[in-house]
Amino acid sequence: MNMSTGMSSGMSAGEAAQIAARIAANVEKVVHGKAKAIRLAIAALFAEGHLLIEDVPGVGKTTLARCLARSIGGKWSRIQFTPDLLPGDITGVMVYHQREEQFAFHAGAVFANVVVADEINRGTPKTQSAMLEVMAERRVTVENFSYEVPRPFMVIATQNPIEMEGTYRLPEAQVDRFLMRLSVGYPDLDAEVRAVLADCAGATADDLQPVVDPAALREAVAAVRRSRVDPAVARYAARLAAATREHAVVRVGASVRGSIALVRTAQAFAAIDGRGYVTPDDIKDVAGPVLEHRLLLTPEAELDRRDPAEIVAGVLESTPTPLVNA
Amino acid sequence: MNAARQSAVTAAAFIAGLLFFPVFGTAALLPRLGVPLALALAAAILGTRYLPSWRTLLTVLAGLVGVVQTSLGFGPPTGGTLRDLWAGATDSWRLVLQSTWPARPEPELVLFVPLLVVAATALGVELAQRSPLLALVPSFLVAVLAQCYVPTPPWPAAVAALLYAATAGVLLAAGAGLSHGAPAGSLYAAAPVTLALVATVLSGLVPAAPARYGFHGSPAPVTFARVTSPLDELAYRLAHPATEAFRVRNAAAVDRWPLVVFDAFDGIAWTSTDRYRRMGTDLPAGDAVEVRVRSRSAEIETTPAAGPWLPSQTWPARVRGVDPLVEERHGTLLLGEVGGARYTLTWWQPDVDADALGGAAVDPLAPGGTGGVGPVPPGIAELAAQAVGGLRPSLRSALALERFLRENYRVVTGANLPTGHGWPQLREFLLSSKRGTSEQFATAYVVLARILGIPARLAVGFRTPSARDPDGGYTVRNADALAWPEVAVRGVGWVPMEPGGAQVAGATLPTGGLAAATDRARTQLPAPEELSDPPAPPAAEQSTPDGAPDGRPSSPWAGVPVLLLVGLALGVPVATGVRAGVRRRRPGIRAVVGAVEEARDRLRAHGVPVSVGMTPRDLAEVAPGPPGVAEGLRRLGRVVDRSLWSGALVDDGAPEAWAAVREVRRGLARRGWRSRLRAAFRY
């Protein structure tokens, strides 16, 4: 079977899959037992989307983000969000140089290929907005000058959903900017033992070497965008998003951006598998991480502790999978 | 399409309800089923169109309105209507089993059939929304219940099976047409009809025995208080001869009117193995009667002191004017209460050739004919042998025994008549006094006949007096009370004997029919010294207990249950095979889609929870063991992905997809027999 079916030129799906495999293997040297989360994170990278990792403290959110950043040969930066962090610390500021007698732009931490925004919900809303604006527009505007961030550009944000004191909850409209939301979760016992032994041996994210350069990553991203999406599969994705909007306990469902994110992530998933075309299974695989954080439940459902994951699972079960070309 | 399915479901229920026709008669069932079902169908169609949420309720209500109007009488329903409906739903199924068939189409008996078919229709209409074959289950159960009541005769069964298969075809066609188009629908429609035809023809090659099952035969409860046996009353009646018993008008020639038949004797008392049942519309002559029968009738009016037994005949056909219980084997009627009654009795009278009767054989299989006689006193058996001169059991030996009693014993009349009918009294009568009334003559004849192997029973009733009333009828009084023996003759039934002779009758009896033929046979009996056995009759055909010959070319049809079972056993696998063939032959990638549909249906038939949101990969995850099933589904998923979503022109997708389906089927075939059996009957 020709794995590159559906690609027209440039990097093939098979080559993109090899890059994904190299990155996954590199990350798994430090992050153990989290193959699915790593695969999803790589999919977000290939889809050129941003990733929100949300989980309890100590399960490896930041480690996963740092490992992913270190695996890419480009520039990466880490921003620890705190209440006193200012927007200029992120985006950069204009500084007056007496010698040149002019203002010069000092780029902020956001000017990197991979930006790790640690504990993003500890930043003030103003700072969060600055960050999220960069995520959406991939450029920074200071004093009427616009500065493009390097490509590929990816923000990997982490946040702790339990500890609420001193935090500022991300606005729903801005959460929508994240391509997907991941939950790392606790590893199984064997994986935890491996993580402990690796730590004893001194293996850290800082020891990882880049396994792909930005140029190759850009080609991989381009290859992903060329993956074939059958109209029936696109219609299936749109139906899933529409079904979340029509769900009885959902106040605000997935937007059009959600449908687009669904297909784009599925394209990345297909490429990671070495396929140049998207299948309904790809859509189903990514539906949870892509759609769950976009759902706003009704107050009654919130009180009933209804889980968005359960709602997405129900939608997947009740929406007919496509069998013929639309 | 909905209307077509609902019509088919209603038709199936109608056909199933009509299978009760041996119980009630077709004419009684047609309006009682047709009107309610027509109303229910109209309500279902209109409800689907305008009030889908209320469809079931509307269907049931419309059907009930039809039931009320046709079975309980026209008019607005009242509280009594509800009580009747409740009684019909809870009791009628049981009461009809206590009746002879065809049963009277009265609400208390027939109501459960229209209620059942209305319920089957309402349920079937709802199930038709899910699965065409599932919609037939309620009507099928009604058909099965009808077969439990009475197996349908061969030809009507074949016609019903074909019509039922046609409705199944319409249902399948309507269901298939929704998703696969008309050609597939036609195939589905033709399949069950073809199967039914094949099953019908094949069943014709299978010898069929008469049905040996059925609910029919429950006795009706007899509620009256204990009454004196007519046999015990005989002496009292003869002691009060002038008392009127009943009057007969417009009577055909008939010499006696039996009240009760006794067929069991333990040496002390004579008892009857009566199993009284409600009398239906018409009774046939008994199975034992093979000669031509004529219909006779008479109007009878009993006195208020009479009862609870009514004057009857051996083979009553119908009774108008009262609603008695009937003992079919004896022909006796029981009113259930003491009091006067006026009724018209119609009965069957065997038309017998006297010459043939003289040489006729007895029927040892006649029910009650060879009951016990208790401990036989010494000397009685020798007396019996002496009476017939060693003749083997036959009507000739029965007549010889009758002549022996007539010539050697004397009937007494007047006061101080001997009474009793146990062995002490019979021994006194037979060996010492040789004087008695019809009570001793008849009982003595029966015990002697049974000792000789002649099937006999004891009847108690009245003779017809010789003198007519001015209006041409007869007034029967206590003086006419009589006991007499009856002998079972092969092909004729029970033939009354006269061991007391004319002395008992005391007058010239009206003659005709069986009595006249017996009289002629009596006169043709040779003198005692010339008596010999008549020519042995040809070996009787081996009969089954219920009278149906065994080994004859059976009914060419095995009946509805067999057809339905065959249809179910073969129909579903054939239908699934046809469906798979249609899917496989679709053009291009639609054949690949058909493979996925086939795999889904196969798994669903094996009880796997399959939802519309499942891809082949999901199916593989929930697939039951053995492992070949999951592997086949994963292989199918790969083919589907490549054929449907890659955009490449893949020509070899269909064969590979169907190869994967075969792998799945082979895997499923290795599952347990329960799972496979369940899957075999799921479409």
UniProtKB/TrEMBL annotation, chain B:
Region Disordered, annotated ranges: 527-555
Keyword Transport: no
Residue spans crossing the bilayer: 35-51, 58-76, 109-128, 133-152, 158-178, 185-206, 557-578
Keywords: Membrane, Transmembrane, Transmembrane helix
Organism: Virgisporangium aliadipatigenens
Stretches assigned to the Transglutaminase-like domain: 430-501
Name the UniProt record assigns to this protein: Transglutaminase-like domain-containing protein
